[in-house]
Each structure stands twice: as C-alpha cells, then as structure tokens.
Amino acid sequence: MMTKLSEKAQALLDAHVAFTVEQLTGKQLEQQIEELIDNLLKDTSKLKLGDVVTPTMIKQTAHRYAIHHEIPPAIPELVGEVARELYQLESHDENKIFDLLSDEQFRDLMKKVLEMKDLRERLIHEAVSNPIYGEMISDVLYHGISDYITKNPLTKKIPGAQSMMKLGKSVMDMASPNAEQGIKRYIGQNINASMKQSEKFLVRNLSDEKISRVAEDIWDEVKLNKISVFRNYVKESDIEDFFVIGFEYWRELRKADYYRDMIDAGIDFFFKKYGKSTLPELLDEMGVDRNMMVAEAMHYAPHVLAVLNKKGILEKAVRRQLAPFYESEALQNLIG
Question: What Å distances lie between residue 112 and 60, 117, 206, 221, 297, CA to CA?
C-alpha cells in the first residue's frame, strides 16, 4: 500500500525523478554510459569468475533451459515461418554459389577432407562390406553374363553357337525368376575374393590426386550456378519436413544422459580454463573491449530511452523505482 508523502518528500521525489530522467535522455547520456562501463570494468577486475558463480550453478541453469524447459509451440512455428521466408528469398536468384565459397576456401576444405585418409578407407570398407554392395555386384555380374550369352558377336561366326546360346537363354527364361535369384545367390556366395579386390581397387584408385581432380571438376561446374538452383532439388515442404524431423530428434536427444554429459563437460572445461579470470580478462579473450561496449550501448540506448520517455513509460518506471525510499519511515524521520 502506497504511503502518503509529506509535501517535502513529494517535492524531493519529483526532483529526483526529473533529475534521473534528464540523466537518461539528455546530452550527458553518453558520459553516464561511459562512466557506468568504466566503473563496472574497474570493480570486476577485482573479482574472478569462480568467485562469483560456480560450475554447479551454471550447470543447473543450463539443465533447466536446455533439458527440462519445454519449448512453447510458437517457437517451432516461428522458425518454420522464417525457414519459408528464407527459401523464397530473392537474393538466392541474385547470388552465385561462388559468392558464398571462394576457390581458395573450397581448396582448403578439400585439403582437410583429403587429410582424413583413415576415415575414407573406413568408409570404403564399410560400404564394400555392406550386403547391398554384394547384391549390386551379383546383379551386375548376372546381367553381364546374361547379355554376353545373348549378344556375344562371336556366336554369329561359330556354326551352331548361336542356337546353343539361344537354347541356354530359353532355359534361363523358363526357370525364371527362381533361376535368376539362384544364380545371383550363387554369385553372391562366391564373390568374397572379388569384393576384397574391389575394396583394394577403390582404396588404390580413390587417391588424393584423383579425388581432388574430380572434386575440382565438379566445383568448376556448380560454382557459377545461382544459389536458387537448390530449389530444383529441395522443395519448400522438404525444408519444413527436415525442420520437424530435426526438432523432434532434438527433443528426444535432450532427454538422454549423453546430452547432459556434453553440457557438463563443456561447462567444466570453461571453468577450468577461465575460472580464475576476471570479467575484463574474459572480455579481452573474446575480443570485446571497452570502446565496443560503449558504442553498442549508444547504438540502442538513446533511441529506446527516447521512445520510452515520449510514451511516458520512462518517468513512471523511474518513479516506481525511487518512490519506496521516499515513502520509507527512515526518510520521514530525516526530513521531519
């Protein structure tokens, strides 16, 4: 309940409110901001991060919002709408892929990929060992043999050979599809040695030089395309579907202990490295200096405060902040 102020207390409150509003909206605002930031940096230079907050406190906050806090429906809906706007962005028709990735940047990426030789060989091994690869090889061999039997030009030059080939083809056709599947299965069961050879062939032929050359050729073909070319392959609905899938995946992942472990590990490492650092030292590490903070504060504060003042919100907010002191018994005792 608001206490009725004496005439003197009301006058003091009104003067204090007017003074504060003037400080926040007048020409001295920049000076006020500079002094505030300078004093903040000076005072915090005496405090280390680990003295102010603990890893446990930060983890609790991170868990609360990254794991337990439910995302309101408006957020995924908003992101979906933003994705649709980005999909239709006119700039896609004005910029080329080369504008996003230069030749030098592409070569740097390729260099890094080529350095990952162990991963490349592992991927080849897993691909060749996959049953689908074996089925594909069996299918290729079967059709190759079948075409050889029916289309071999030598059968036209050897008396009776063409008839024998047709007979063999007829027998295969009569027995299909069981014969076809049986032959493919037989081939599949007896191509282990060929599979190993194909793996060696791929490892040997997918050399750094050949991969680089193929990648460069592909890059030269696509880099001059407009960015909008992706619309030929990815529909707007696909973007939305991928977002929904990704969002649902994240919702499940955040419940896993693994997700919590990653968050905790990151926080622990941050405190291990910066726990004994002061705020000015942390800001310096991040490339943020005093002038940058003043510039950003002045970029927003004058406009925001001017709007609040024009709407009468600033004066009310300042008055609410100061009034309790002028209503206090301590002040009443001082001014009588």
Answer: 38, 10, 16, 21, 41
Q: What's the confidence (pLDDT) of residue 15?
A: 97
User: For residue 223, what is the enclosing H or E element?
Assistant: none
For residue 121, give the nearest of 193, 207, 210, 195 by alpha carbon.
Answer: 207
d(CA 4, CA 244): 57
Q: How far is CA 209 from CA 109, 114, 183, 305, 319, in A?
A: 15, 9, 39, 61, 73
- For 116, the 3-state DSSP assignment is coil
Q: Which residues of the chain have pLDDT under 50?
A: 160-161, 164-165, 167, 171, 174-175
The closest alpha carbon to 331, from 14, 2, 15, 10, belongs to 10
User: What is the reported pLDDT for 333?
Assistant: 86
Q: What is the pLDDT of residue 161?
A: 46
Query: Angle, nearest 10°, between helix axes 117-129 and 192-205?
Result: 150
Distance (Å, whole) CA 80 – CA 76: 6
Is the pTM higher than 0.85? The answer reads: no
pLDDT value for 6: 86
Residue type present at position 73: P
Q: Taking every pair of C-alpha atoms in the chain, what is the biggest distance, in angstroms? A: 132
Q: What are phi and psi of 226, to 5 degrees?
A: -70, 150
What H or E segment, with its residue span, contains residue 125?
helix 117-129
The runs of H, that is alpha helices, within 88-207 are 97-100, 103-115, 117-129, 131-151, 161-175, 178-189, 192-205
Identify the burial level of 17 via C-beta atoms within 10 angstroms of its C-beta, where 0-12 means exposed, 13-18 middle and 19 or more buried: buried
Query: What is the model's pLDDT at position 160?
Result: 46
